Amino acid sequence: RYDRSHLRYPSDLTDDEWTMVEPLIPPGKRGGDKRTVIMREVVSGLMYILSTGCQWRAILACPHRVVRVEC
Q: Among positive and negative, which fits the CA dihedral 49, 54, 58, 61?
């Protein structure tokens, strides 16, 4: 299918895939601080979760930083 051997994880986006996804991400809100995250990494993280079924808490690398996600 697709050669994904050059990617960190098979779920990461290729450059071509990112060029299709990037325009769909809204810009940061005006008036606040600039974004401090790399949106491509955020999308790659979401793709990882979706493709592996991993629990969100299982991927947190830093035990001192707690992220709560409410649905």
A: negative
